[in-house]
From TrEMBL, chains A, B:
Essential cofactor(s): Ca(2+)
Location of the Glycosyl-hydrolase 97 C-terminal oligomerisation domain: 601-702
Residues spanning the signal sequence: 1-25
Domain Glycosyl-hydrolase 97 catalytic, residue spans: 314-505
Protein's recorded name: Glycoside hydrolase family 97 protein
SUPFAM superfamilies to which the protein is assigned, alphabetical: (Trans)glycosidases
Keyword Hydrolase: yes
Origin species: Pedobacter chinensis
Amino acid sequence: MSLKRNLFYSLIFSMLVLKCFSQSSTPVSVRMKNVGFTFTLNAKGVPQYAVSYSKNNAILPSSLGFKLDQNVSLTENFRLIKVDSVSVDETWKPVWGEVSQIRNHYKQLTVHLAQQGEKPILLDIVFRIFEDGVGFRYEFPAQQNLKSFIVKDEVTEFNMTGDHKTFWIPADFDSNEYKYTSSPLSQINAHKWDLISSGKIEVNIPDQYAVQTPLMMKSANGLYINIHEAALIDYSSMQLHVDRRNFKLTSSLVPDARGNKAYMRSPFKTPWRTIIVSDRATDILSSKMILNLNEPSKIENTSWIKPMKFMGVWWEMQVGRTSWNYTDQMDSLYLKGKYIPNGRHAANTENVKHYIDFAAKNGIEGLLVEGWNKGWEEWTDDKEEKFDFVTPYPDFDVQEISAYAKQNGVKMIMHNETGGGATSYERQMDTAFRFMNKYGYGSLKTGYVSGIIPRGEHHDGQWMVNHYIRSIEKAAQHHVTIDIHEPTRPTGLHRTYPNFLASEAGRGNEWNFFIDGNPPEHETILPFTRLIGGPMDYTPGVFKLRNYAPGAPDRQMHSTLAKQLALYVTMYSPLQMAADIPENYEPHMDAFKFIQDVAVDWDDTKVIAAEPGAYITIARKAKGKDDWFIGAITGEDKRKSTLSLDFLDKNKKYIATIYGDGKDADWKTNPESYEIKSVSVNRNSKLKLLLASGGGTAIHIKPIN
Amino acid sequence: MSLKRNLFYSLIFSMLVLKCFSQSSTPVSVRMKNVGFTFTLNAKGVPQYAVSYSKNNAILPSSLGFKLDQNVSLTENFRLIKVDSVSVDETWKPVWGEVSQIRNHYKQLTVHLAQQGEKPILLDIVFRIFEDGVGFRYEFPAQQNLKSFIVKDEVTEFNMTGDHKTFWIPADFDSNEYKYTSSPLSQINAHKWDLISSGKIEVNIPDQYAVQTPLMMKSANGLYINIHEAALIDYSSMQLHVDRRNFKLTSSLVPDARGNKAYMRSPFKTPWRTIIVSDRATDILSSKMILNLNEPSKIENTSWIKPMKFMGVWWEMQVGRTSWNYTDQMDSLYLKGKYIPNGRHAANTENVKHYIDFAAKNGIEGLLVEGWNKGWEEWTDDKEEKFDFVTPYPDFDVQEISAYAKQNGVKMIMHNETGGGATSYERQMDTAFRFMNKYGYGSLKTGYVSGIIPRGEHHDGQWMVNHYIRSIEKAAQHHVTIDIHEPTRPTGLHRTYPNFLASEAGRGNEWNFFIDGNPPEHETILPFTRLIGGPMDYTPGVFKLRNYAPGAPDRQMHSTLAKQLALYVTMYSPLQMAADIPENYEPHMDAFKFIQDVAVDWDDTKVIAAEPGAYITIARKAKGKDDWFIGAITGEDKRKSTLSLDFLDKNKKYIATIYGDGKDADWKTNPESYEIKSVSVNRNSKLKLLLASGGGTAIHIKPIN
């Protein structure tokens, strides 16, 4: 398969060049409905931009620029050469997604600058103004005075108008797996808050006043502002340093082993910096700006790419019932020696067949098996060669399992945990993908738990950013879809690489196993933060919410069972896991029915209600069907609401099956209490939803033929 | 081909277990002819060793130990568990070499130590005492209290007896391409001496009092002592910090990006630390200790591995007549763009055919072509993706050239310059070797000019040490021999990997092109230093010694023409280049005859005379023939000597063709003056040699049938 660029693929092309002019003085202003934008070159030749929404300022005048190697400072003394302008209105169809087609409607300004001096340096800044915000990127044209260069710092500013309420996690270079803190901008302090949970392997927060993106803020006058980036390619991830006194955020790029931020050659385009803004929280969740700022699919034939639900031989290891590793006596036995089995190894042929049986019987398409390959005995240390990606443990008969899965119509999902050893993985990648092709694995989960090798590099730095893309491209060449755990948080690249179905890159449901878990509000924040960049493999669907971990009776999920179901709708992903083990589903097959039925690809999505940290209600229409699925969740607070079904077809009748919290449900004291009822509905119906503390409701609305 | 270990391959096995005992108290002493050795555990539980030669001390009591991560100090408080002893006397045949068989004769002590404390750590030290010195290594047995660990420092001491004369280069982490300084130990100071030559791309000398190994010393009482290491695998290179007051040398390992020295898991064996000692300088050059301390060949079928001579489309670029790169206008044209040729590109089909014609006509087996592949426009910068190893420039028709070379019996040598981008090379390696196999390239020259990627790693660190071995193993799998430029200096690994024919890893003949060049003494020091670890691709055979570089009339080789010939014998390598261009050889085809005739593989070698910094005379018997070749070189001083031919066969008559300096020859004023004469000789003959300043003599002694 070629990865050749095909601009017209899946693109309903209707670009309207409304006007196209050049000018050579500032300020330049543009308006798109409520969003106002101004670019200025100030008296010192500093490029600045500002954003407003309706009559309110969203971003006050903010400076743009760079510091490069050899003491080149690209921050002031610029001269405006000209400004080009163009308007675009087009619609395109994603290979999969929340909606079947996406409108890309913006006005674009390209500001051509030259820094004055003996050896002028050319810098273009491209702004795209949408109805829901602004995206901009820097472009370095090919030029004599700047061929190869090092980015020492990008100094992009976002000047906020006040001490906004902010949902933030600290700017770790290697992880996004934190609980969110909501605080005013002025109170951000990664060292002050209780952020570092148990079990974190690597913590690297050199700047206590810096935060990860997507960063979600809410102003006192009700503006929702989200800052992130789009199309992160060949560059390091942007974090934001917070000037707590002046409410100014400044880009802070993740460094490499030498402390540099990126290595470039002109011509080069940075990722887009994105500001999504609205006076309605639901608009933030509906925004397609980040997808629109990414390039169309590089994969020409996408017919092999399919969203799916899957189960995993995983949760039983995660809760400590069984083990990934085959032996506990690793000394001198590693790889070359004779293994002495520990008797607790989950990925054995018999157990895998048991999962295949359950999945096949209950219509779950895929099965992930972790801990099947050699290397799990010694992999969190600093040695480079950790895993062997083609050699199963002696009790995992890959041939037999593949045949059995095929026979039962279940798709096996490969697992390649690298332990952070990216160089080792790159060396073995060709072999690993040939192995997948040989044994019929069409999907892959990769992992980067532990410190990165090349040593001194970080999960979120330029080298690893490129590595993840290499793994996606290699997967595409082998017709394999990919789900990356522990990469940098996504930036919409699944438009360009639609085989990149999902990633973790955030604090998943699995953390509920650990002592402090995820607070009930967690899933009401994630769609405003982590999910802004792309789908998350959150692994919902845990039914046994207490007493699941041997020897750890105090641990429990911070959720009701009904909420676990609602997450399949509120946490968008084309790849959704039914995370629990068959034995925990079997007592609740009535509730499991929702997991069986819920779609993973959609024609339409309505964000009905949303407030970060409080609640989310979303309705989605299944791809190619008239079925709707609704998820409603709440945080710690109980929530009573009325749901209007006015999005339903005028002429159709429906049956709604409602999976709600039981009357006495409560995430802490009675999480397993749920009620299922069916009612006839139409577009005039209103449903009363009653969500328990930490609870939720899942609804399947099916047309009556 | 499998790389399976075959211990018995090429090994004439005659191990004699003379005695085998255990004891559990120190001191333990061993003698092998002149070499005396003592191990002691002193009162503080510090392991110490000492070496003597004849009646003189060579190494005074010196401590051994480590500093590991988590503040584990393995330097004292050891308890002796037991000492095992064994004697070995065996003979083995190298696949190629200076001699047809090698005796491996030593007594071995294995000292089993345990550090006292709550969690005792086990450490074994293995000493091998030879007739020409001592080798020792640390071994960490598999153990509960030390599984995975980081070496923060190895603290191996070498306490010298006085202020020895020392031939040294500074401890750069990334290069050995320095001129040697000869000074007393007390005067070593890398920042003081004029060491850094023009054209060095990366200089990294964080310790001005540290030096590279092999380190050659001579004591006031005439002992020659050489310190180096053998079998450097999965560990970083050892440099030596010099305590100038106490004449104490301490191991200083090359750090990685994090400042760590090595990442290990027990069981683990360090490389051998080697001390070669004798009262005769010629014994140092004859020593096979480092080869003996390496493992036998891992390559089972070695029939495809052949030493050879070769020419190169290279020197013409090196001196600036032509270019490696195809275009000078690289901006925006790199890789994807259309190239505008600069008209100076050497690796074009026509020019390559011209070299093939010359090589074929004159019996030179191989031809290296540099600058044939895309990437030479932008490769010394910091970007990772520099070279494309399978895409020729438009004027290099690989198919036509391969066919033409085959038709003319010339073997093409592949060139893969990485620019230090090791990760990029590893990703492309499979493709690159398939390309070599497809077009019939059986040999490869690799290069690592410029800083290493992974960034923060060094040429001489553990990661790159493993990378070089990966490239050797990958080459072996594809039946390709390899010549590595800019690796760490060799440590005898060509025994284990006989397809690893040579490396540069030192200051080659090419430096004579640069302004300060190599002083005439340089080649009299290299065999005592750089070559102790393995063959060097020095690229001798430059015939046009002045006025070869356009626009640089002041540059000249620091050598006479006859010395260039003698180097083929004095600088041992199974891979010898005839470095000059055909046009420069054509006026001197009488002298070129020696390059045609000289062997590259040997049945026997006699080091007749040697003094580091002054002179070397070596005679070698061609493999499977009765021909002898002799090389005699001198430094700045003229040298008159009488050469006895008593190594010749008693019953044979010979013709000696002598390629000597002309009477008026002088490297500076008249380097091209040479004389060729033939005389009949036998084993009673004595030849008078007269070497000019910077001169040499090459002799071919051929039996008369």
